[in-house]
Amino acid sequence: MTESNAAVFRNESQPDWGMGLVVEDGPRHWVLVFERGGRKKFIKAKTKSLVPVRLDATALGTLRAAVLGKRVASADGSPKAKGAQKKMPSRFATFVEQVAFFEKLFIGGFEGERFVAEERGHPEATGKAGYKDAAIKMAQKELSPARFSSASPAEVFECSKRVLGATNIVFPIEGAIPFGSIAEPDRPAVLVALNHLLHGEGEYGRRLEQFALAVNIKDKTGKGKRVTWPLATLFGALYWPDQHTCVKPTYFAAQATTLGLRVEASQPVTMSGYRQFFEVAKETQQRLIDAGHRPRDLMDVYSFIWRTHAEKHA
Hints:
Helices cover 47% and strands 10% of the residues. It has 314 residues and is α+β, with helices and mostly antiparallel strands. It has two domains: 8-54, SH3 type barrels, CATH 2.30.30; 95-310, no CATH class. The strands form two sheets. Strands 4-3-2-1-5 form a five-stranded antiparallel β-sheet, with helices on one face. It is globular. The two termini are 24 Å apart. Residues 1-5 and 70-85 have low confidence and may be disordered.
């Protein structure tokens, strides 16, 4: 089976499992949670029985609630429980060990053939298979100051959706689908906040928090939902890859542990939270440089964090 961007599958060989929701999309594997089959892991290159299922936003929300239940909160960055912060486990005892794993995984480092093919791609490439150079180029074209000033609000909103769905960084069920379902009366405020996020003045973290508050996403019952960290931070990371980072809180919190820092993964999108995650990205970038590597930008740093923590150990 070829890789699909669908968030939902059926397993033809196990129809009794019902529909399965993708909860992890690794470089080589999926992890799905099925309605009646529970949590299952599939190797992409060897799986032939999974068939994508297209659902509307309401049906997706119903499925997600059914298979994930209360665990949804941890996926979107909202607090799991009150109390003291817990130190996230890391798969690496030291940063040296992490770099060694990266060098084994990607021969030639950030300039190596595999890293370029799987993580950077080419500015002219299409598709969502990690072609971050193409997504960066798209974001800088579709969300430029000129676009905001000359295009209609409807056109800019559609541009925003295309950018959000241009990579595999954010699952459709957590990004393009809920963003696209924002009620039309709420969209002008979202676009004003997005324009300010990308082209405004003042501390970026504060603008990010304001943007997250403006994105009025609701669940199937009409109740407001927290904006996920990947959704909130992807726009700035693609438009300004040298200056801002995309955040996946679980992996960044684990990276913090590797660096000897402590960051709470289960926190809403706030200025103070972004400061913490950004410190993780910048410290990782500097340590990579000290180790002799040359990440192009913070998007490469994001890829380093994600791939080393998500990739299966040999």
